[in-house]
Specification:
The protein is of the alpha+beta class. The chain has one domain (32-113). It has helices spanning 16-22, 102-113, and strands at 2-5, 9-13, 27-30, 34-40, 48-55, 59-66, 69-76, 82-87, 94-98. The chain has a 6-stranded mixed beta sheet with strand order 4-8-9-7-6-5. A 3-stranded antiparallel beta sheet has the order 1-2-3, with no helix packed on it.
């Protein structure tokens, strides 16, 4: 997975195996559709899997239903912090990604959104 930040949008590019496992292609997200971005420590996410791959404590990849909201999760082994993108009026309410530099990316996204931190 690769996250690329542009001036007016961000892209989350998945490699071919991640696309197959998640039943989803890459994401194009305009900053106008992002409410906030933050980093949080790894934790258990209790959701119902709609599409994708789920081997508890190993990998959670794909679309999950949390209450009435759809979330995209890409979590592997819970060794790194989660980058959480809260979205407005989109197919997903949240995108949760486990990445090594989640604090830095969340800070850069919030700067693009004009949210002071």
């Amino acid at each position: 997975m690769k996250i690329i930040l542009f001036d007016d949008h961000m892209r989350i590019n998945l490699n071919i195996l991640e696309m197959l496992g998640s039943a989803k292609t890459s994401f194009y997200i305009p900053y106008t559709n992002i409410v906030s971005a933050f980093s949080e420590p790894p934790h258990q996410i209790v959701c119902f899997k709609l599409a994708g791959t789920n081997f508890p404590k190993l990998i959670e990849l794909g679309t999950f239903l949390y209450g009435t909201q759809k979330q995209f999760c890409y979590i592997k082994r819970r060794k790194n912090n989660f980058l959480v993108l809260v979205l407005k009026s989109n197919f997903y309410s949240k995108i949760i990604l486990e990445i090594t530099n989640s604090e830095e990316i969340a800070k850069r996204i919030n700067e693009k959104l004009g949210i002071p931190k």
